[in-house]
Amino acid sequence: MSETAGYMRFFPYDQPYENQREAMDRIHNSLTRGQNVLFEGACGTGKTLSSLVPALEVAREQDKTVVITTNVHQQMRQFVAEARAITREEDIRAIVFKGKSSMCHIDVGYEECQALRDNTRAVVDAERDKRQLERRQRELLEESQGGDGSAADARSAVMDELESIEERLDDLEEQNVCDYYRNNLTEDTDDFFAWLFDDVRTPDEIYEYAERQEFCGYELLKEGIEGVDLVVCNYHHLLDSTIREQFFRWLGRDPEDVIAVFDEAHNVEDAAREHATRTCSERTFDSALDELADADDPRSEDAANVLSAFHRALVETYEDSFGFGERERIDENWEDVPIANEDRKDDLTLEFLQRYSGRGIEDDLEAAMKLGQELDEQYEEAYREGESATRTECQTLQAAAFVSAWMNEGSKEGLYPVVSVTRDAGTDEIYGRAELYTCLPRQVTGRLFEEVYGTILMSATLQPFDVTEDVLGLEDPVTMAYGLQFPAENRRTYAVETPPLFSSDRDDPAVQTEVTDTIHDAVRMTPGNTLAFFPNYGEAERYAKRLEGRTEKTVYLDEPGTSVEELRQQFVADDGAVLCTSLWGTLAEGVSFDGDDAQTVLVVGVPYPHLDDRAEAVQEAYDAAFEGTETGWRYAVEIPTVRKTRQALGRVIRSPEDVGVRALLDRRYSRSAKSDLGRYSVNGTFPHEEREELIDIAPEKLKFSMLNFYGGNDAYDGETPAP
Q1: What letter does residue 650 receive in the DSSP assignment?
Q2: Taking the model in full, what pTM does it have?
Q3: Using CA atoms, how far apart are residues 66 and 44, in angstroms rounded to an integer?
Q4: Whose CA is closest to 181, among 225, 213, 227?
Q5: Mind listing the pLDDT tens digit for each residue in 502-549?
Q6: List of E strands, 483-547
């Protein structure tokens, strides 16, 4: 590649990094052929521009639109910054798109918004027709006064039509309308679009500008999105099939005209699973049955028959699951009730079939669906006509659609039936929900990747690539990986051979003492701040308390429900502190600790997820899909766990000047543990280059190694700590 390559017109800076040059060239060649790309790059490899620059060039060459999507707010800000830099060098039209709920000025739901827009458009159209008729009747009046007899007859017909329009307007004015959207239709919006495309505007900027002008910024975005070069949006715009279809329609693009770029792509697996999963709560069934009781329709009896049977079965299923004292222990978090069976249908379906009596489940569900659709249309009409202040959602339609899916799709490959329960904090009432959990993300992503022109999935933790291919349903993607490009002498990565923190050993006093001593040594030898990750919030709290009595440094504890950003700012403002948090919290990825914000990062233990029945179902689905008895464990547990660890390690050493230590405190990370820990050794799951950097070290020697490393890099500003 040379710097005169066509795509360099979109590169906004003087010189790309060395690996960035190679990555852009390979991505450009791959996209030109319509291929998918898996791109792993550590911090400092310039992943964003490496993907965006060649994607924009191919889109310009082949009349495509680039859609870059992320689930991390900080990354969205990064994309905006890079897109703004590009616009300084090459003219592109870019839009940053967020969901309607975050941009609505009057805070209404999707169905209400649709009805309001339809009503508003009808009023504006009627007012326009009225103006045209008034103008025409004045013209005809002048002609008739000049002696044209036919003009008088024509004017009479126009007056009749005008009277009809005025009556219609009287009716329409009683209906619900949106004044913001009305201004979109009636006012001059040229200045808005000139402002919008003069730079790359954030959704917050668009909201504020539209608010001042009393426009609906969200609808103007939809209107102006067609023909743009670049869209930055959230995952759900591509992973939710219904939203994706609408989104592409707004773009004015077919799927094959879209180049999709997924940022933090290691999260796509869970996000796809979440978007495909269906749920229906007991309260939806309660509302549906109340709705049917009020419906004056002969079909309501059949509809209520089938929905009440499923409702009773749901309640009976979770009530039967409670052992002594378990009901009282239910809190505000959803807790799963296992219902799946290996040799027969799940417990909820069996209970439903036993309780149901009627002319036939399919017939009753069809009656419920048809009646629900009609009720839904009535609710929309009532909202349009101003008879209702809000747009009511039809609960019968939702409940019937879910039961139909449960009965028709529940036994399909990769779908796992679940019942969950929770406690209402306000009423102290226990209630449940049924859920069809999607175990195989490729059922969502595979079709998407087939439909679009090409994709780039980028992350710092995508390897092993073959697993990513299988899980997401990619066909022969181009793969590339670039490790840390910063000076190797500025960092050390240790696998500290503290006892394995198996859940059964975490309460062992001897284990806790050795782990605490090692953490304390690492904190003491760190010139500045230490970031410590634990397998869960409980372990973070345990060791935060144990450290408080032993170190003069401030100990910060990240707890669920607290402001993470406020805590982060307090921590980075300190010059000698330790922050204890969970690897499953929000600080483990997408958040940078640059420079002196944190110099040492500790990962204490191996952060395996909670291995409940749902996780077991995912493992079994992977075993079945990929024909291997250990595949499920590797795909669903081990690799995601190591990715979590690798993400945490990447929170520090964010620039070539940064100096820092990354330490994994658990013998399972060490090379020497492979022989005796078997499947529980995770060393081999790290990419080769990262394994080569791991230095096995005894816990008691860590303080000496850190002292030598930081001292050798002149990192101690004041007195060097004693080992």
Answers
A1: T
A2: 0.88
A3: 23
A4: 213
A5: 989 999 999 999 999 999 999 999 999 999 999 999 999 999 999 998
A6: 491-496, 530-534
